[in-house]
Design brief:
3 domains, alpha+beta, 4-stranded mixed beta sheet
Length: 303
């Protein structure tokens, strides 16, 4: 019978720090866990006693990669508490800024963290010699997304222009028109990205779980709406704690959450599973080429 012990410190090519522990004794899986070992950050404590205008700038420091998401969430919470209704223009620009960050994060994940495994190398660096076009495409997309965030938020990482109720300054019409043209031109790189990842041999692995995301009747939701799950539950955003149900575990500094099952999944795959019908037609075409049709239960396809 198989006896196997795996103890990886730390997992590489992930956004953060984590360990993997696996213990198989006489063919029986005794333990399998992912440990988040980053030091506690105590952002809740940092915010106590600070001005409400400072909150989004502090919370954006939770992550340098997804700073826009943390800042936007903080602003939405502050405005909810103060009874402030942001203008249609403010909401639109926040969405634009968030989309820039999502593009940036996804190209980092797909090209820099995932692709090296499929090409049999330890990092993206060796791909410069063997697949230079792939690396250059990734850098072009990443540059575009960074410029988009900087145009709206004042800078790419940790936006400084977003504030409670609006922005401290706005992009000009000329900047917006120029950015629109660049985004249209980038469709070729996006199409090539889909074509590349459609050819990769994804692991055949299925794991059914509950998928949790935002939902809005009139758009593919990233900000606002209601909280929905693939198990049929729906909650107003104000009741988010009924979904998160945070708990501490001894082997991880990141809190665990559960809802209708032992765990659930959020993010890109959850949004696709819960809001597939609201995808843009071009996005649906890309999903078809990648073999994505809800409910998708292969977590590798979150890429």
């Amino acid at each position: 019978m198989t006896t196997l012990k795996i103890d990886v410190h730390h997992v590489t090519r992930v956004e953060g720090h984590g360990n993997i522990v696996v213990d198989v004794q006489s063919g029986e899986l005794k333990e399998c866990r992912f440990e988040v070992v980053e030091a506690p950050r105590f952002f809740e404590g940092m915010l106590r006693g600070r001005l409400y205008t400072e909150a989004s700038h502090i919370t954006s420091r939770i992550c340098g990669i997804c700073a826009v998401g943390h800042a936007t969430t903080s602003l939405c919470a502050t405005e909810k508490a103060l009874g402030i209704e942001p203008s249609e223009q403010t909401v639109f620009l926040r969405k634009l800024n968030l989309h820039g960050e999502i593009i940036d994060s996804h190209v980092l994940h797909t090209y820099m963290l995932v692709a090296p495994d499929f090409f049999g190398v330890g990092s993206v660096i060796p791909l410069v010699e063997t697949h230079r076009d792939v690396v250059l495409r990734a850098l072009r997309i990443k540059k575009l997304s960074g410029d988009l965030c900087a145009m709206v938020g004042g800078r790419h990482t940790h936006p400084i222009a977003m504030t409670v109720g609006g922005f401290t300054h706005l992009p000009t019409e000329a900047e917006l028109r120029q950015m629109r043209a660049r985004l249209v031109d980038a469709r070729a790189d996006m199409d090539e990205t889909v074509a590349l990842f459609a050819t990769l041999p994804w692991p055949e692995f299925e794991r059914e779980t509950e998928y949790v995301s935002l939902h809005k009747d009139d758009e593919y939701a990233f900000i606002g709406g209601t909280i929905v799950t693939s198990d049929g539950f729906s909650y107003p955003i104000e009741d988010y704690k009924k979904v998160t149900n945070e708990e501490c575990v001894p082997f991880s500094t990141a809190k665990w959450t559960h809802h209708n099952r032992e765990s659930y999944m959020v993010g890109a795959l959850a949004r696709l599973n819960n809001n597939f019908d609201q995808l843009h037609p071009r996005a649906k075409e890309a999903a078809a080429k990648l073999g994505l049709k809800p409910i998708v239960t292969n977590p590798f396809l979150n890429t």
